[in-house]
Amino acid sequence: IMLHVAPVGRETIDAWPVDGSGLPVRVVNSVQTAGVTTVGQLRAQSDQNLLSLRSLGRISLTHIRSFFKLCAQIEQGRQSFNSIRELIPLFLDGPELKVMAARYGLDAQDLSAPRNCATLQEIGDAEHKTRERVRQIQETSMQKLRSRVARVCLEPFYVFFADLLNERGSSATCADLSALKNEPAAGGYNLCGVLLLLSDLQPERIVFYNDFFSTVSETAIRTAESQAISLLNRSAKPVPMDEVLESAGLTAP
Questions:
Q1: What does the pLDDT read at residue 183?
Q2: Mean pLDDT by 10-residue block, N- to C-terminus, for the chain (253 residues)?
Q3: 170, 104, 188, 97 alpha-carbon torsion, rounded to 10°
Q4: Do 185 and 81 meet the contact criterion of CB atoms below 8 Å apart?
Q5: Which DSSP letter does residue 5 get?
Q6: What DSSP element (H or E) covers 74?
């Protein structure tokens, strides 16, 4: 399987604010101090100008070049991924990847989606870090994976996994997905852990609610749930499942 990232034009990318674009915080802070607020303005800067900025050295310059290299791949429609395991290290460093893998059970063998698979304290003890430091790493990781460039790269995965759910009636539990335990797009990661991460990053795309994943919005699910409960409460006798689903605006799978 090969998941292709849809091309994004240079004008669109150049209009991105540097803050939240996917550039490192150190880079963002340095260039914003110099009045550079968009990716396009950053692109126009020479290496000499950038290196003259306070707190921006050779390592930061390398990060900027890597960012623009990835953007060029996207602009030209040449960016693709075999799996999400291949994508995540583009945005997270080693410690961040360890924390996120532990929190979401990405390397867990059993196909389940317990939220916070490992506690902050457990990860801290294993990595010799404080609980607060682990929390900060998790928060930073989520921000990186919500950046403009990361969202563009993740888009084909949202489409792919949403299609998997839609093929199963728009909703599925981990047990329902057991046959897909070795889904190549997950790259060996726990499929439910991947879906849980995607749902936390963009809950408007994939919802995790009452132990099942869905492409139906949480608002719609709660509304349907309330309507179904009202019907059952009003009825003096058992109600056929088809009638319950119909009252909730749903259809039987």
A1: 92
A2: 94 97 95 95 95 92 96 97 96 95 89 76 94 96 98 97 91 88 92 94 92 86 74 71 60 48
A3: 130
A4: no
A5: P
A6: helix 58-75
User: Secondary structure of the chain: what % helix, strand, coil (to 5)?
Assistant: 55, 5, 40
Model-wide pTM > 0.85: yes
Q: What is the model's pLDDT at position 253?
A: 46
Note whether 79 and 181 are within 8 A (CB).
no
CA distances from 101 to 44, 118, 189, 203, 220 (A): 37, 9, 9, 19, 30
Separation between Cα atoms, residue 146 and residue 114, nearest integer Å: 22
Buried b (16+ CB within 10 A) or exposed e, 213-244: bbbbeeeebeebeebbeeeeeeeeeeeeeeeb
3-state secondary structure of 25: helix
Strands 3-4 and 171-173, by their bridges, are unpaired
